[in-house]
Write a structure and sequence with these properties.
There is one protein chain. This protein has 413 residues and is of the alpha+beta class. It is 53% helix and 19% strand. It is built from 14 helices and 12 strands. The strands form 2 sheets. The chain has a 6-stranded mixed β-barrel. Strands 2-10 form a two-stranded antiparallel sheet. Helix 2 runs antiparallel to helix 11, helix 2 crosses helix 13 and helix 13 packs antiparallel against helix 14.
């Protein structure tokens, strides 16, 4: 019973403090300057909050845009060895993975470095041999900028190159001259007298050029048929360097990933799209949260206007404070009133800033008001508002409002 009475007493104190603070915030003060400073404080917090919402949404937009670009080339899951380069598909654990009902597309990959030569030009590149169902695994046809995706036409081997590779070699998808690929023989020593005999050589014709707008792919990768890659790099018909998977449902990626890791054990690594580009996405996250911290610091400085507003309000309400003390209010209750006053200024600014920031983001997302120009991948700044970012921003602003309000309230006499 005593505990219930104590709880009710605390609740009444809290409710009373909030009511008085709300009345002080919205009622007219005896000195108009207090109203002006309070409004400036709220506007400053609102502008800082709005900037946080917009900037974090822009980072989310760019992250989503680049993620979509990677998804046209990167598989949902990729299996490779933790140590070593190639493995046999006939292994029991690999076959067990292949039989999983959650897997829709199972694509064999042979990927190695080689030398390309077209007419009098040559360059090193990463040759990626893919099986016939690769077009079903990746959205490769969406990123073909010239020609078509074809790796074998029934008579000749074909090659699809990145746009950077095509520019370096000076080729087009419609040229009839062959592209030669050279790779060192895996099971023989270099012949110093005739070094050309130490290399495997194959010829193919360009059928298409892809553009991912990602340097590591456009400037480096070429796609050939799996059989051609195996012959070029001296691999048996059941040997691969990686397996790429597409699932029946992309919502189960993490579950299937853990299941495959359990089946294959520590000798293999299974990576989703974000893990395949881990370093890039880590940099994006670091940039996002460093920007968040910088803007939060600026917002904290803007919140210091609350100190002046509360200090003047305390002076203005000296007679009210004396009246409350006469009625039995203690220092703790009075301090709580002005602390809530500071919080309400912050909360008002935060809510206003979130509404304005979200409105700006939605306008940009649906109408593309701010343009990037014709030389970019997209016409307008990509933007994506994240609900959890909004929640984080709101509580960050409240925390800063508490810190700013604490100083004048602490020294209230």
């Amino acid at each position: 019973m005593a505990e219930k009475t104590n709880f009710n007493h605390k609740w009444l104190d809290l409710s009373f403090s909030v009511r008085i603070a709300r009345r002080y915030l919205f009622s007219k003060k005896s000195h108009n300057a207090i109203n002006i400073i309070s409004a400036i404080s709220a506007i400053g917090v609102a502008i800082g909050t709005m900037a946080l919402v917009v900037v974090l949404s822009v980072f989310n937009g760019f992250e989503g845009l680049i993620s979509d670009m990677f998804s046209a080339f990167d598989p949902e899951l990729r299996i490779s060895l933790s140590q070593g380069k190639s493995f046999d598909l006939q292994q029991a654990d690999v076959q067990k993975v292949k039989q999983l009902k959650e897997i829709a597309i199972f694509t064999e990959i042979v990927e190695e470095n080689a030398l390309l030569r077209f007419k009098d030009k040559q360059m090193p590149a990463t040759v990626k041999g893919v099986s016939k169902n690769y077009a079903q695994l990746a959205d490769i046809k969406k990123i073909i900028s010239d020609g078509k995706f074809e790796l074998y036409d029934g008579a000749f081997e074909r090659i699809v190159t990145g746009v950077g590779v095509a520019n370096t070699l000076g080729l087009s998808a419609h040229f009839i001259d062959p592209i030669f690929i050279y790779a060192p023989k895996r099971n023989s020593k270099i012949n110093l007298l005739r070094p050309e005999t130490s290399f495997n050589q194959t010829a193919c014709f360009a059928s298409g050029i892809f553009t991912t707008n990602q340097v590591q792919y456009d400037e480096k990768y070429v796609l050939v048929s799996l059989n051609q890659a195996r012959q070029l790099f001296d691999y048996d018909s059941t040997v691969v360097t990686a397996i790429e998977l597409k699932l029946v449902s992309d919502s189960k990626i993490d579950i299937v990933k853990k299941e495959i890791e359990t089946i294959l054990g520590p000798n293999y690594q299974v990576k989703n799209r974000f893990e395949q580009q881990e370093s890039f996405f880590k940099i994006m996250k670091i940039e996002k949260w460093i920007t968040f911290l910088i803007l939060s610091f600026i917002l904290l400085i803007a919140s210091f206007n609350i100190i002046g507003s509360l200090s003047m309000l305390i002076i203005d309400k000296k007679s009210d404070i004396s009246t409350l003390e006469s009625l039995g209010a203690n220092k703790k209750l009075i301090r709580r009133i002005f602390l809530f006053e500071g919080w309400m200024i912050s909360a008002t600014g935060a809510i206003l800033g979130i509404i304005l920031g979200t409105a700006i983001c939605l306008l940009q997302e649906f109408f593309g008001i701010l343009k990037l120009g014709n030389d970019f991948v997209v016409d307008a700044y990509p933007i994506s508002t994240n609900f959890m970012d909004i929640v984080l921003i709101f509580f960050t602003v409240l925390l800063m409002g508490f810190i700013a309000a604490l100083y004048p309230v602490k020294y209230l006499k």
